[in-house]
């Protein structure tokens, strides 16, 4: 099974460049299992939500961009995903599906809504 680097262990550094290099957001994420950040974010901890953004924004963007085929619209929907996450995260229940799969399902649904 293929897991994102942050779920395999080690340290992940990625660079996100939005708007074709006009601005960049760099985050260094210590690759521990995201459960601690998820638990804190569920209680409203904005720093924990920032950690989740740093871990998953790139994957969410690519998922959304594959559906919408428009960079600017994909950027907007990516932001909407993390805004929505503040409200739906308390309902998240860890089961056999990793958090990343659940989050990408949220992203996919928002992208499909935006496409209509």
Keywords:
alpha+beta, single chain, 60% helix, 116 residues, Rna Polymerase Sigma Factor, Chain: A, two-stranded antiparallel sheet, 5 helices, disordered N terminus
Explain what the structure shows.
The protein has 116 residues and is α+β, with helices and mostly antiparallel strands. It has a single domain, classed as RNA polymerase sigma factor, region 2, helix turn helix motif (Rna Polymerase Sigma Factor, Chain: A, Orthogonal Bundle). 60% of the residues lie in helices and 14% in strands. Strands 1-2 form a two-stranded antiparallel ribbon. Strand 1 and strand 2 form a beta hairpin. The termini are far apart.
Mean pLDDT: 79
Strand order across the largest sheet: 1-2
- How many beta-strand segments? 2
Cα gyration radius (Å): 14 Å
CATH C-level label? Mainly Alpha
| The CATH topology | Rna Polymerase Sigma Factor, Chain: A
Can you tell me the residue ranges where pLDDT is under 50 for at least 5 consecutive residues?
A: 1-30
**Architecture, according to CATH?**
Orthogonal Bundle
Question: What pattern of helices and strands is seen along the backbone?
Answer: HEEHHHH
Distance from N terminus to C terminus (CA atoms, Å) equals 33 Å
Into how many domains do the coordinates divide? 1
Number of helices: 5
The main sheet comes to:
2 strands, antiparallel
